[in-house]
Design brief:
mainly alpha, two-stranded antiparallel sheet, 13 helices
Length: about 300
Protein backbone atom coordinates (compact mmCIF):
# COMPACT_ATOMS: atom_id res chain seq x y z
CA UNK A 1 0.00 0.00 0.00
CA UNK A 2 1.39 3.38 -1.04
CA UNK A 3 2.21 5.77 1.74
CA UNK A 4 -0.16 8.77 1.79
CA UNK A 5 1.47 11.96 0.66
CA UNK A 6 1.11 15.13 2.72
CA UNK A 7 1.78 18.33 0.78
CA UNK A 8 0.64 20.73 3.49
CA UNK A 9 4.22 21.74 4.21
CA UNK A 10 4.26 23.55 0.86
CA UNK A 11 1.84 26.12 2.27
CA UNK A 12 4.62 27.26 4.63
CA UNK A 13 6.95 27.87 1.67
CA UNK A 14 4.44 29.48 -0.71
CA UNK A 15 4.60 33.00 0.85
CA UNK A 16 8.40 33.11 0.39
CA UNK A 17 8.13 31.72 -3.15
CA UNK A 18 5.46 34.29 -4.02
CA UNK A 19 7.53 37.14 -2.56
CA UNK A 20 10.69 36.10 -4.42
CA UNK A 21 8.76 35.57 -7.67
CA UNK A 22 7.12 38.98 -7.37
CA UNK A 23 10.38 40.79 -6.58
CA UNK A 24 12.10 39.08 -9.51
CA UNK A 25 9.24 39.36 -12.01
CA UNK A 26 9.04 43.16 -12.12
CA UNK A 27 12.76 43.74 -12.88
CA UNK A 28 12.73 40.99 -15.53
CA UNK A 29 9.66 42.45 -17.21
CA UNK A 30 11.24 45.91 -17.15
CA UNK A 31 14.46 44.65 -18.74
CA UNK A 32 12.55 42.74 -21.44
CA UNK A 33 10.48 45.86 -22.13
CA UNK A 34 13.59 48.04 -22.53
CA UNK A 35 15.31 45.44 -24.75
CA UNK A 36 12.72 45.84 -27.52
CA UNK A 37 12.52 49.63 -27.39
CA UNK A 38 14.67 52.67 -28.07
CA UNK A 39 14.70 55.96 -26.20
CA UNK A 40 15.42 59.47 -27.44
CA UNK A 41 15.31 61.11 -24.01
CA UNK A 42 12.50 62.77 -22.05
CA UNK A 43 11.32 59.26 -21.10
CA UNK A 44 10.01 58.67 -24.63
CA UNK A 45 10.35 55.09 -25.88
CA UNK A 46 9.82 53.74 -29.39
CA UNK A 47 9.36 50.17 -30.56
CA UNK A 48 12.60 48.68 -31.87
CA UNK A 49 11.78 44.97 -31.99
CA UNK A 50 14.74 42.59 -32.01
CA UNK A 51 17.14 45.09 -33.57
CA UNK A 52 19.28 45.37 -30.42
CA UNK A 53 19.67 41.59 -30.22
CA UNK A 54 20.65 41.34 -33.89
CA UNK A 55 23.23 44.09 -33.46
CA UNK A 56 24.50 42.57 -30.21
CA UNK A 57 25.06 39.11 -31.72
CA UNK A 58 26.77 40.43 -34.85
CA UNK A 59 30.53 40.78 -34.22
CA UNK A 60 30.80 43.11 -37.24
CA UNK A 61 28.85 45.87 -35.45
CA UNK A 62 30.31 48.17 -32.81
CA UNK A 63 27.99 46.80 -30.14
CA UNK A 64 28.56 43.20 -31.17
CA UNK A 65 32.33 43.57 -31.30
CA UNK A 66 32.31 45.23 -27.91
CA UNK A 67 30.08 42.47 -26.49
CA UNK A 68 32.17 39.56 -27.77
CA UNK A 69 35.44 41.16 -26.65
CA UNK A 70 34.06 41.54 -23.13
CA UNK A 71 32.59 38.02 -23.27
CA UNK A 72 35.94 36.40 -24.11
CA UNK A 73 37.66 38.38 -21.37
CA UNK A 74 35.03 37.26 -18.85
CA UNK A 75 35.24 33.61 -19.93
CA UNK A 76 39.03 33.73 -19.68
CA UNK A 77 38.83 35.26 -16.22
CA UNK A 78 36.34 32.61 -15.02
CA UNK A 79 38.44 29.83 -16.52
CA UNK A 80 41.64 31.05 -14.85
CA UNK A 81 39.90 31.40 -11.48
CA UNK A 82 38.45 27.88 -11.68
CA UNK A 83 41.75 26.34 -12.79
CA UNK A 84 43.50 27.87 -9.78
CA UNK A 85 40.84 27.83 -7.05
CA UNK A 86 39.46 24.30 -7.44
CA UNK A 87 42.81 22.41 -7.24
CA UNK A 88 44.11 24.82 -4.61
CA UNK A 89 40.94 24.44 -2.55
CA UNK A 90 41.19 20.64 -2.65
CA UNK A 91 44.88 20.73 -1.68
CA UNK A 92 44.27 23.05 1.28
CA UNK A 93 41.27 21.02 2.46
CA UNK A 94 43.39 17.85 2.46
CA UNK A 95 45.98 19.49 4.73
CA UNK A 96 43.52 20.79 7.35
CA UNK A 97 43.42 19.02 10.71
CA UNK A 98 40.55 16.58 11.30
CA UNK A 99 40.37 16.89 15.09
CA UNK A 100 41.57 19.06 17.95
CA UNK A 101 41.62 22.81 18.51
CA UNK A 102 43.21 23.40 15.12
CA UNK A 103 39.96 22.58 13.34
CA UNK A 104 38.03 25.56 14.72
CA UNK A 105 41.00 27.91 14.34
CA UNK A 106 41.59 26.88 10.71
CA UNK A 107 37.93 27.22 9.74
CA UNK A 108 37.65 30.66 11.33
CA UNK A 109 40.77 31.93 9.53
CA UNK A 110 39.54 30.52 6.22
CA UNK A 111 36.13 32.11 6.64
CA UNK A 112 37.53 35.61 7.22
CA UNK A 113 38.00 36.58 3.52
CA UNK A 114 34.42 35.50 2.79
CA UNK A 115 33.10 37.96 5.39
CA UNK A 116 34.70 41.01 3.79
CA UNK A 117 32.36 43.04 1.51
CA UNK A 118 33.25 43.07 -2.18
CA UNK A 119 33.94 46.81 -2.36
CA UNK A 120 36.24 46.55 0.66
CA UNK A 121 38.12 43.68 -1.01
CA UNK A 122 38.64 45.86 -4.06
CA UNK A 123 39.84 48.77 -1.95
CA UNK A 124 42.26 46.55 0.00
CA UNK A 125 43.86 45.23 -3.18
CA UNK A 126 43.85 48.65 -4.83
CA UNK A 127 46.06 49.95 -2.03
CA UNK A 128 47.96 46.69 -1.47
CA UNK A 129 49.08 46.48 -5.11
CA UNK A 130 50.03 50.15 -5.59
CA UNK A 131 53.64 50.57 -6.60
CA UNK A 132 54.19 53.65 -4.42
CA UNK A 133 52.55 52.83 -1.08
CA UNK A 134 51.26 49.27 -1.44
CA UNK A 135 53.12 46.46 0.28
CA UNK A 136 52.82 44.09 -2.70
CA UNK A 137 53.53 46.71 -5.38
CA UNK A 138 56.48 48.21 -3.55
CA UNK A 139 57.95 44.76 -2.78
CA UNK A 140 57.66 43.54 -6.38
CA UNK A 141 59.16 46.74 -7.77
CA UNK A 142 61.89 46.54 -5.13
CA UNK A 143 62.91 43.22 -6.69
CA UNK A 144 63.56 45.00 -9.96
CA UNK A 145 60.28 43.95 -11.62
CA UNK A 146 58.38 46.79 -13.28
CA UNK A 147 54.90 46.12 -11.87
CA UNK A 148 51.97 48.50 -12.31
CA UNK A 149 48.37 47.28 -12.59
CA UNK A 150 47.30 50.77 -13.66
CA UNK A 151 49.54 50.79 -16.75
CA UNK A 152 50.33 47.19 -17.73
CA UNK A 153 47.40 44.95 -18.88
CA UNK A 154 49.21 41.76 -17.79
CA UNK A 155 49.84 43.19 -14.33
CA UNK A 156 46.18 44.20 -14.11
CA UNK A 157 45.10 40.65 -14.98
CA UNK A 158 47.49 39.13 -12.46
CA UNK A 159 46.16 41.49 -9.79
CA UNK A 160 42.44 40.83 -10.35
CA UNK A 161 42.95 37.04 -10.63
CA UNK A 162 45.09 36.98 -7.48
CA UNK A 163 42.46 39.07 -5.71
CA UNK A 164 39.67 36.65 -6.66
CA UNK A 165 41.77 33.64 -5.65
CA UNK A 166 42.48 35.22 -2.27
CA UNK A 167 38.84 36.13 -1.74
CA UNK A 168 37.07 32.94 -2.86
CA UNK A 169 39.40 29.95 -2.52
CA UNK A 170 38.21 29.66 1.08
CA UNK A 171 34.72 28.80 -0.17
CA UNK A 172 36.10 25.85 -2.15
CA UNK A 173 38.20 24.78 0.84
CA UNK A 174 35.22 24.79 3.22
CA UNK A 175 33.03 22.83 0.80
CA UNK A 176 35.75 20.26 0.14
CA UNK A 177 36.55 19.97 3.84
CA UNK A 178 32.89 19.25 4.61
CA UNK A 179 32.89 16.59 1.87
CA UNK A 180 36.06 14.98 3.24
CA UNK A 181 34.64 14.89 6.78
CA UNK A 182 31.56 13.08 5.46
CA UNK A 183 33.63 10.12 4.20
CA UNK A 184 33.27 7.20 6.68
CA UNK A 185 36.43 6.03 8.43
CA UNK A 186 35.76 2.49 7.17
CA UNK A 187 36.99 3.52 3.71
CA UNK A 188 40.31 4.68 5.11
CA UNK A 189 40.66 1.57 7.26
CA UNK A 190 40.08 -0.66 4.25
CA UNK A 191 42.64 1.31 2.22
CA UNK A 192 45.16 0.99 5.06
CA UNK A 193 44.65 -2.77 5.16
CA UNK A 194 45.25 -2.93 1.40
CA UNK A 195 48.44 -0.90 1.81
CA UNK A 196 47.22 2.00 -0.33
CA UNK A 197 49.33 5.15 -0.36
CA UNK A 198 48.15 8.75 -0.01
CA UNK A 199 47.78 9.23 -3.77
CA UNK A 200 45.81 5.98 -4.15
CA UNK A 201 43.49 6.98 -1.31
CA UNK A 202 42.90 10.37 -2.90
CA UNK A 203 42.28 8.94 -6.38
CA UNK A 204 40.10 5.98 -5.35
CA UNK A 205 38.27 7.30 -2.28
CA UNK A 206 38.45 11.01 -1.65
CA UNK A 207 38.10 12.42 -5.17
CA UNK A 208 35.09 10.22 -6.14
CA UNK A 209 33.35 11.11 -2.88
CA UNK A 210 33.98 14.81 -3.54
CA UNK A 211 32.33 14.85 -6.96
CA UNK A 212 28.99 16.25 -5.79
CA UNK A 213 30.69 18.84 -3.59
CA UNK A 214 32.98 19.86 -6.44
CA UNK A 215 29.99 20.22 -8.76
CA UNK A 216 28.46 22.73 -6.34
CA UNK A 217 31.79 24.52 -5.87
CA UNK A 218 32.42 24.83 -9.62
CA UNK A 219 28.90 26.08 -10.31
CA UNK A 220 29.07 28.67 -7.54
CA UNK A 221 32.51 29.87 -8.53
CA UNK A 222 31.65 30.04 -12.21
CA UNK A 223 28.54 32.12 -11.58
CA UNK A 224 30.32 34.43 -9.14
CA UNK A 225 33.40 34.94 -11.32
CA UNK A 226 31.37 35.34 -14.51
CA UNK A 227 29.22 38.03 -12.88
CA UNK A 228 32.09 39.77 -11.04
CA UNK A 229 31.87 43.55 -11.07
CA UNK A 230 32.73 45.37 -7.85
CA UNK A 231 36.25 44.11 -7.14
CA UNK A 232 37.86 44.66 -10.58
CA UNK A 233 35.95 47.92 -11.05
CA UNK A 234 37.32 49.30 -7.79
CA UNK A 235 40.88 48.15 -8.54
CA UNK A 236 41.26 48.89 -12.26
CA UNK A 237 38.00 50.49 -13.40
CA UNK A 238 38.11 48.12 -16.37
CA UNK A 239 41.54 49.30 -17.47
CA UNK A 240 44.18 49.90 -18.46
CA UNK A 241 42.27 50.60 -21.64
CA UNK A 242 39.70 47.82 -21.83
CA UNK A 243 42.03 45.07 -20.57
CA UNK A 244 39.85 44.16 -17.57
CA UNK A 245 36.50 45.38 -18.89
CA UNK A 246 34.39 42.32 -18.23
CA UNK A 247 30.78 41.93 -19.34
CA UNK A 248 29.40 43.27 -16.08
CA UNK A 249 31.57 46.40 -16.24
CA UNK A 250 30.76 46.98 -19.92
CA UNK A 251 27.07 46.53 -19.19
CA UNK A 252 27.14 49.21 -16.49
CA UNK A 253 29.06 51.56 -18.80
CA UNK A 254 26.43 51.18 -21.51
CA UNK A 255 23.47 51.48 -19.13
CA UNK A 256 24.66 54.28 -16.85
CA UNK A 257 27.56 55.86 -18.70
CA UNK A 258 25.96 56.09 -22.14
CA UNK A 259 22.36 55.68 -20.92
CA UNK A 260 21.58 53.27 -23.79
CA UNK A 261 18.92 51.36 -21.91
CA UNK A 262 17.83 49.27 -24.91
CA UNK A 263 21.32 48.01 -25.67
CA UNK A 264 22.06 47.39 -22.00
CA UNK A 265 18.79 45.48 -21.50
CA UNK A 266 19.45 43.24 -24.53
CA UNK A 267 22.99 42.59 -23.30
CA UNK A 268 21.80 41.74 -19.79
CA UNK A 269 19.27 39.20 -21.13
CA UNK A 270 21.91 37.48 -23.28
CA UNK A 271 24.33 37.67 -20.35
CA UNK A 272 21.85 35.91 -18.09
CA UNK A 273 21.04 33.26 -20.71
CA UNK A 274 24.74 32.45 -21.12
CA UNK A 275 25.10 31.86 -17.37
CA UNK A 276 21.99 29.67 -17.21
CA UNK A 277 23.00 27.66 -20.29
CA UNK A 278 26.58 27.01 -19.15
CA UNK A 279 25.44 26.02 -15.64
CA UNK A 280 22.73 23.71 -17.01
CA UNK A 281 25.09 22.00 -19.47
CA UNK A 282 27.76 21.52 -16.80
CA UNK A 283 25.28 20.24 -14.22
CA UNK A 284 23.56 17.88 -16.66
CA UNK A 285 26.87 16.50 -17.92
CA UNK A 286 28.27 16.04 -14.41
CA UNK A 287 25.19 14.37 -12.96
CA UNK A 288 24.90 12.06 -15.98
CA UNK A 289 28.53 11.02 -15.54
CA UNK A 290 27.99 10.40 -11.83
CA UNK A 291 24.88 8.24 -12.48
CA UNK A 292 26.74 6.18 -15.08
CA UNK A 293 29.65 5.67 -12.70
CA UNK A 294 27.29 4.55 -9.93
CA UNK A 295 25.78 1.77 -12.07
Amino acid sequence: MAKPRDDRAWFLVLPVVALVAFSALIPVMTVVNYSVQDSFGNNQFFWNGTAWFKELLDPATDLGGRFFDALWRTLLFSGLCLLIEIPLGIAVALTLPRRGWGVAASLVVLALPLLIPWNVVGTIWQVFARRDIGLLGAAVNGLGIDYSYAQNPLDAWITVVAMDVWHWTSLVVLLCYAGLRAIPDAYYQAAKVDGAGAWAVFRAIQLPKLQRVLTIAILLRFMDSFMIYTEPFVVTGGGPGNATTFLSIDLVKIALGQFDLGKAAAMSIVYNLIILTVCWVFYATTTRGQSEAAR
